[in-house]
Design a protein that fits this description.
By secondary structure, this protein is mostly helical. It is built from 16 helices and two strands. A hairpin with a 6-residue loop joins strand 1 and strand 2.
């Protein structure tokens, strides 16, 4: 359950407070709001429709999914013009009439697809794996392209998050699929910058995990996601403290070379930079960057993110020397072609790398000229997390 507010006054109800409509399970803080919603809020006309759809949660998920698919198709319309889906081979989906999307690192004529086709494919693969008692690696199809193996980003990830949630939301709390579906939804909302909603989903999910006394790893994953939401919402001190604890937690649980530990280091470094604690950020990244390069390779997305943040920590520091600025520019120039080749031109990290390269060059050029406007522009940027 992720509908955690009263349908009338938006009072926060958490997972258990308030009351529900006896027919469709729409949630209210009390009888007064329920009565108002029925008499003047239109619920008397929608109640049967909501029940028929499977209840308030399912009805909401279905509607939000439809909206998200429309947004994703419109955002991708220019890129997908004249193309066909690599799954169903049609331009328009035969049933939903939705347009195509592409939100990964595929390029050329590859990777064009309908969100509905991706969702149906993922659903079939996961069900087949369950039936044959196979590992849950097929779950990746809910968030990762089967062609280029890069995770979907932006509004496409959001649409897939809603697709996943509407598919599995009725599962028991103890079912790992329901747990993964809520994680997927939170990540999708965050990818599309629906940060308040992402935080609400993640906090509800964490409360469920704590109640079920689940594994330390699952708790750390969700706490990491919540810290990321804090960062995006400007709750910077909370984000930094939580990310510091997450880095320490992953380090103790998985060791310094694990992907989750390195991702936590990137996020912690990002928070330090946002708070202008550049020396601490540089020290952290200088310690962890060689580990990422050695274990995961120069072209791995984690390594690339770490290098981007490190270069940014060099030129954003008011105390940066000319050598620091030169190193920042050189680092960006060296890695920009790799980022574009690995992630594609539309990926957020590619866009950020190109912009930061321009800013680093401008700061270096203005180093002795006192051009405050350029420095102000640099300080206004928000460092990216993992």
């Amino acid at each position: 359950m992720i509908l955690t507010q009263c349908a009338v006054c938006a009072t926060e109800l958490g997972l258990t407070l308030g009351k529900k409509c006896g027919r469709c399970s729409t949630r209210y803080c009390g009888p007064e709001c329920q009565k108002q919603h029925w008499e003047s809020g239109g619920h008397d006309k929608l109640c049967k429709q909501i029940k028929k759809a499977g209840g308030a949660e399912q009805y909401n998920a279905n509607n939000r999914y439809t909206e998200a698919v429309t947004v994703a198709a419109e955002a991708c319309a220019e890129d997908t013009k004249g193309q066909t889906c690599f799954i169903c081979t049609q331009a328009l989906h035969w049933k939903t009439k939705e347009g195509l999307v592409r939100g990964c690192s595929c390029r050329g004529t590859a990777g064009f697809v309908h969100v509905s086709c991706l969702a149906e494919q993922a659903k079939i693969l996961v069900a087949d794996a369950q039936e044959r008692n196979l590992d849950n690696d097929k779950w990746e199809r809910w968030h990762t392209c089967s062609l280029c193996e890069q995770q979907y980003h932006g509004v496409v990830a959001c649409a897939l998050g809603w697709a996943c949630w509407k598919t599995y939301l009725g599962r028991p709390e103890t079912d790992w699929i329901g747990c993964y579906a809520m994680t997927n939804l939170g990540n999708g909302l965050a990818a599309a910058n629906h940060n308040e909603e992402a935080l609400s989903v993640r906090e509800a999910h964490l409360a469920t995990l704590l109640r079920l006394d689940t594994s330390k790893e699952d708790i750390l994953i969700m706490q990491t996601n919540i810290a990321n939401s804090y960062q995006k919402l400007g709750r910077l001190e909370e984000a930094m403290c939580m990310r510091r604890d997450m880095y320490s937690g992953w380090f103790k649980l998985k060791g310094e070379e694990h992907r989750d530990t390195l991702a936590a280091a990137i996020n912690y470094g990002s928070s330090l930079m946002t708070l202008k604690r550049f020396k601490e950020a540089k020290a952290l990244l200088r310690k962890t960057m060689p580990v990422a390069q050695r274990v995961h390779g120069e072209s791995n997305e984690l390594t690339l993110r770490m290098r981007v943040n490190y270069a940014q920590s060099l030129y954003c520091d008011d105390g940066a020397t000319l050598d620091d600025l030169r190193e920042a520019v050189t680092t960006f120039e060296d890695m920009e072609p790799t980022v574009r080749r690995v992630l594609g031109g539309a990926h957020p990290l590619t866009v950020a790398t190109e912009l930061r390269l321009q800013l680093a060059r401008a700061v270096r050029a203005a180093r002795d000229g006192g051009v405050s406007a350029i420095r102000d522009a640099v300080e206004a940027m928000t460092p990216g997390g993992a």
